[in-house]
Amino acid sequence: MSRGFKSIEHTADLALALWAEDEAGIFEVAAEAITDNLTEGATLGAEARQRVTLRGLDHEDLLVRWINEILLLAILDGFLTRRASVRLLPEAALEATLWGEAEASARVVAELKSATYHHLELAPTPEGWRAQVIIDV
Q1: What percent of the chain has pLDDT over 90?
Q2: Which architecture characterizes domain 4-136 according to CATH?
Q3: How far apart are alpha carbons 102 and 97 in whole angstroms?
Q4: For residue 5, is pLDDT > 90?
């Protein structure tokens, strides 16, 4: 199965459909999708690195927290994620390494506020994993 993302029709917010070969891949694709939307598809370098550790209530909650962490790193720290390597841990936790551009807040051209729990989906399919998440804009 390939991996990727696309924006889907939604009334006022940004809805993302995500797909990947495994659950960790969904988290990796989500980071790429957020940065792509923040920068309207700008090409980014991958010279800087960040490490992230998160814990959630369950994997759906962890996905929302993950996306919000990517947004916080971009908006507050100016770190734009180009690529992520995610390792899911027991009890709804993850460890990740992010590669991207530091001090790149000037490259953010779209306003995304936060991931929401509204219509949140994360599930295995016969072809791999799929997710849907709504981003408040």
Answers
A1: 89
A2: 3-Layer(bab) Sandwich (3.55)
A3: 14
A4: no
**Residue 66, Cβ neighbours under 10 Å: how many?**
26
pLDDT per residue as tens digits for the range 70-103: 999 999 999 999 999 999 999 999 999 999 999 9
Residue 41 · residue 77 · CB < 8 Å: no
What pTM does this model have? 0.92
In angstroms, the CA 84 to CA 26 distance is 11
Assess whether pLDDT exceeds 80 at residue 136.
yes
Residue type, 137: V
Q: Where are the domains of the chain?
A: 4-136
Burial of 78-114, coded b for 16+ CB within 10 Å and e otherwise, reads bbbbbebebebeeebebebebbbbeebeebbeeebee
Cα–Cα distance for residue pair 119/47, rounded to 1 Å: 35
Tell me the C-alpha distance between 4 and 32, whole Å.
9
Structure tokens given for 100: 């991207």
